[in-house]
Amino acid sequence: MKKAHELLKKNGPNSLTPPIKSSEIAKLIRCCCGGFSFLIWIGSFLCFGSYIIEVHTHTDASQDHLWLGVVLIVLIMVTGMFSYYQQAKSSKIMQSFNDMLPQQAKILRDGEIMVIGVTELVVGDIVLLETGDRVPADIRILECQGLKVDNSSITGESIALLRSAQASEGSVLEARNMAFFSTNAVEGTGKGVVVACGDHTVMGRVAKLTSRLSSRPTPLSREIDYFMRCISCWAIFLGVFCFSMSLAVGYGWMNSILFLIGIIVANIPEGLLATVTVSLTLTAKKMANLNCLVKNLEPIETLGCTAVICTDKTGTLTQNKMTVRHFWYDGKLREVMVSDTWRKYANDLGFRNIARVASLCNRAQWAPTSGPPLPFRKRKALGDASDIALFKCMEILIRGGVNTFRNNYIKVFEIPFNSTDKFQVSIHMFRNRHVLFLKGAPERVLERCSKVAFSNTTKDLTEDVKNAYTESCYELGRNGERVLGFADLELSDVSFPPDYEFQADPPNFPLENLRLIGLIAMMDPPRASVPDAVYKCRCAGIKVIMVTGDHPDTAQAIAKFVGIITDDYDDDSERSIVITGTELKNLDSDQLDTMIKRYPEIVFARTSPVQKLQIVESCQRLHLITAVTGDGVNDSPALKQADIGVSMGITGSDVSKEVADLILLDDNFASIITGIEEGRRVFDNLKSSIAYTLASNVPEITPFLAFITLGIPLPVGLICILCIDLGTDMWPAISLAYEKSESDIMLRPPRIPHMDHLVNRKLVFMAYGQIGIIEAAAGFFTYLVVMAEHGFLPQSLLGLRDHWDSVAVNNLKDSYGQEWTYEERKVLEYTCHTAFFVAIVIVQVADVIICKTRRNSIFHQGMNNWVLNLGILSEIALACVVSYAPHMDVYLKTYPLRAAWWLTGVPFAIIIFVYDELRKLWIRKHPGGWWDRETSY
User: Fold this and answer.
1) What is this structure's pTM?
2) Active site members
């Protein structure tokens, strides 16, 4: 033992394994050096490099390169901050486990009772437990008296379990002679030997399992990573291609570098990360107002593509408090309504009989409070869950409460409930006579009765009454209710005088020929909003799987009540199945995968924490985005492994809250539906924002391609492209995050992440192949109009670039023979840049309007997104500032435009709007057709 204590002090066996924390600095470096930032770094170095080369070679050093480099460096810093804000998250899982640990333990060591710290416990110590103690280690019970422990943090069972020194068959978690580390002794006393400490306990193994699980990347992070890699490769390829082509056709290094920078900048959606962050932040704020606390932004979208919800029963689907649901007395079954009061039962003598037994054969009582009395619903009761349910029910339904009986019936003797006899006996003195009250398992009560109470009379117990009693027990038990029987007996004042001393072992009083009073059935009731939430999940194509540690019958009854199981379960059912932990243990991975894939309605009962984790892993092997809800320590491994973990804010343990991504502040399963809808809305709006952003890439890239291949003067410059990407497009792109959901959003099947990407073929086809081409046509049309009005007709522009950019040519003739100096040509060129920029702004207004919806008409969706409306106005206002503000010709090389040049893009904007409305109309009229398959992104 001494050696064990020395090792204990050295290694600390009761301290749980610490987590592996990832470096936040490393996260920041990864964020800033990712594909997006890497490309911007290249662009900034090229800009500064080209500017330095121009200065040292004494060429025309353009300020454009210097300004562009500064802008890109600022963009890198902003991107890094946004990325860090999204990714930074430190793990505190093990601290939450440590907060659950008991601090001291009362032990019997070397013949002496002492109180020591739990870190000093070793295997073989004898631990003494009393009511209210937290179990300091895994203990095998040696002896106990009425000891009950709350195992909800380990197994999820809502009812306190009676312990005994006798071993039982089955798994360790169901052993009656075991008390587990971190559980609470809610009643009785006991003595046990320590069999495991710290990491070796059941809860310790759960803690290690949870801490060692690595976090899975969210679908949204994978989508953004996939998109950025694709767009980066495309931008680099196109930039290098144009760079090579420009060198091949004879342009200098400076112009070639300019093309490279322009192509890269035009392809990169600079506002994407800002749009993603704003979208998720806005949604997180909205969900917080709806009692959903989001700990990390990215998993918000994960809810939207959730295909399976593995939900705990106790505290999630149910209220986690036992409630009386039915009475059976006077031969009739009666339902207890929430609105019932004592007035309903004031003149009911049969109810008075059963209320007397339920009040007196009951150890529950109100917890002492200081200060003014609390309202009834806020008062805390002490005792067993069943006793508390009976106690609170009688407080409401008895005039004056349970003290009406307790003040008149003085308790003189009691036998607590035990697992062997399965009943509780209480003897009270009333008017100098002893009255015996018995409460217990219905079959044990019935076998001890020979009489039955009917109102104020007593009759012989007939077979008809027994059958009615038994049938009621069966019906209530089938509904998942816990049924207790009640009986009483007035003892003879001759045989049992007032000073009689009662004994329990063996009993020196009669326990036969009692009078049957009736039955009371209780259950942990489902939350009122859960059935509707489960139905909405079914409509949205989401499978809800119940995973609980509770009894299979109880789990099945609750599953039927809330709609998880919709048919009568039997062995031949093709839709639903109930699988116990023992059956699950005999299934291999492939069999479990097949089971989950085959049955749309599944309930797992009597499951261990490891089995819950196996169920989640099976769903993920089937490529199903899995959400897990739970509130106990036993749920923490599954919560950590899931694509999104959802914990309860009120009843949830600190551990479950720490590992979860989403916390339901009201413990309401229905709140998840809000999260699913918001997640789908986020994904829709991100797609819309990307479609809007990518569409402007085409009119930004094609001018450079035309510049190289056709040899025309450059239609639009780098500064104007940055004004589009970081200026006019930014607010409208972000404002799409405020767009409300489309009407059919919860009627669609869940998104399949590995098939339906954020940026898919259909979105690229719409943005690049259709809307982008129309926008490019608008820009080139405006460019040609401005050039033609100044004398350069379209046919004269082909191959004009060499003379146009030559500083030595000061007498270049237009189509009408007018001569243009180099400075005059550059003013005209920058005016064309401005006109091209304005044309893109005009058509992008139409583009952002059509991007509000994917299938619905804009007339049905409306223009109620005032952030977007203001964004459109700001887009136009910013275009006016770029064109007309003083000194813009110096800083941005932009010039004022004639009013007519603003109108050249309007017809193309109308074409975009009308075309998209007709496309969406055709899709709604012909779902599944070519237009739906190829353009409905």
Assistant:
1) 0.70
2) 312
